[in-house]
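Handoff note, outgoing to incoming analyst
You'll be picking up this chain. Sequence as last confirmed:
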Amino acid sequence: MSGASGGAGVRALENGVVKHETAMAAAPAEIEESVSPLGEELGVLIRARYPVIYIVSWEEPRVERHLRQIAEARGKQLYVWSVTSGMRRAGAAPAGRPKGLSDPIEALDQVMEHKEPAIYLLNDFHAFLRPVQCNIATIRKLREAARALSDSYKTVVICSPMLELAPELEKDVTVLDYPLPDAREVDGLLRHICAEVAEHSSVEINLGEADREALIRAASGLTLQEAENVFAKTLVNDGRLSADDVSTVFAEKQQIVRKSGLLEYYEPNTALGDVGGLAQLKEWLRRRSQAFTEGARQYGLPAPKGVLLVGVQGCGKSLCAKAVSREWNMPLLRFDVGRVFSSLVGSSEENVRRAIAVAESIAPAVLWVDEIDKAFAGTSGSAGSDGGTSARVMSTFLTWLSEKSKPVFVLATANDITQLPPELLRKGRLDEIFFVDLPDPADRREIFRIHIAKRDRDPAAFDLEGLAAAADGFSGAEIEQAVISALYDAFYLGREVESGDLVASIAETVPLSRTMSEGISGLRGWAEGRARPASSAATMASVAPRRKIEV
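Most recent structure output, in case you need it:
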C-alpha cells in the first residue's frame, strides 16, 4: 500500500514507538468489536498513522458512523467537511457556510493548524483532485498536508463515490474500497425496521428464519440506504413484510442495472418446468439451488461459478438461463458484449470492468452471456483486425471468471464451438460444460405438452405420441413454431385446432437437423467425451446420420 513518506528513523504509532511486531496489535479489543469486520482495515490505517486515506464509497453516513466509532475509541475528535457546509464537528448541525472554510485550501490549512488528535472527513473532495489546471494549488496543498500530518495524530479521510486522483498524489494517498454492507449489517437493519413497525397493528411482519435469509440475500449488494428504502417500499405497497417481497428488492436492483447502460435486466418469468427435456441439466441446477445460502457456506461449499451450454440452435439454452433465475430466486442480467466495445483506446476494457462491477454489486445474481462464441469470435486474430481489443476484452473476462469471489453465476451459451477460445473451456473458470442436443421422443412429447398447454388447450386432447414421432429431428423452437402455425391455420378455417393440423404443420417444416446435418454431426463429435449431455445419452441415436452405402 502506498502512503505518505515520513521522516528518517523508526516510525511512531499512536500506541508508542514500534519495537516489536506485537506492538501493532496492542489496540483494545473493544475497538475491533465496534467496527465492522469488512471495514476494520480503515481502523488499522488510522492507527498506523497513514496521513491521507481515500475511501471509494457512496455511503457517506455509514463511513461517518464508522469513523466516529474509531475516533471515540481512540480519544479523538471527528470533523466533517463539504463544500456547502464547510468544516464542522461531527454531530453538530451545520451553521450556515463559514467564511473561508468552504474553500478546500482553507480547509486543509485548518487541518494543519489544529493541534489536538483528530480525524477529518472530506466529502466529495475528488472534484478538487482531478489532474486539471485549476486544481494545481489544492493538489499541492494536500501533498504538504500529507507530509505535515505524518508526524501528528491527525488523519485526513476523503470519501467519494468515484476515484479521481492526480498522478502527483499517488504516493501520498492510500486508496481503500469501502465494502457494501454484509449480511450481518442488512440483517441488523431489517430487525431494526421490524422492531419499529411492530407497534403498528396494521403492519404484518411474517418472516421465518428461511424467509429472513431469502430477503437478506436478495438485498445483498444494496447500500444500507437503498435497502432501507426498498424495505419501506414493501411495507407501503402491501402493509406487510415477507419473503414474497423479494421481487420488490429485485426491482430496486433493476434501477442499478439500468443506470449502468451495459447490462440488461430480465424479469424471471420462466420456470424450469417450462423447459422440455434437458433432465440432467435441470437436475444439476436444482441440486445447486441452495448453494448460495448461509447453510451452504457453513457446510464449506463455495458458490457455483457457472456453466457453458453448447449445442444445437433452438434447443432451450437461452430458455434455461431465464429459468434458472426464477428457480434460484435471483436477478437475471444479460451481458451484451457488443455494448462494451468503444472506439476510444482502453474504453472497451474499462466497460467490461464496469459491467462486471455492476453484476458483483447486486450479487447474488445470474449473469447470462448469450452466444459467447459470436461475442468473442476472432480473438486469435484480434491483433490484426482491431488492434487487439477483442483479445484484451476476452482476457479481462476470463481473468474475472477465474478469480471472482462474489456469488455471480455465469451462464454462457454457444452454438459454434470452433469459435470458443480453449482458455474458456478449462476447469476452474466454469463448473461444467453441457451439450444440448435435439430432443428425444420423450422430450418432444413433453415439449408438445408444454406448448399446447401454454396456448390454453388441453394436451390430453391431442395425440402426443404421434406428434412426437412425426417431429423426429425437430428442435424445441421448431416444435413451438409448428404448434403456432397449426393454430394460425385452424383459426383461419374457423375451427378448433386438432392433432391433424399439427401433423400437417410438421410435414411442411424442414428441420435444422436436415439442412445442417453435417454441422450437427460435427457438434456431436466434439461433445463426445468433452461435455456432459444435458438430456439422455440416447438422444443422439434418434437423429444420428444414416450410413451411406453403394447398392
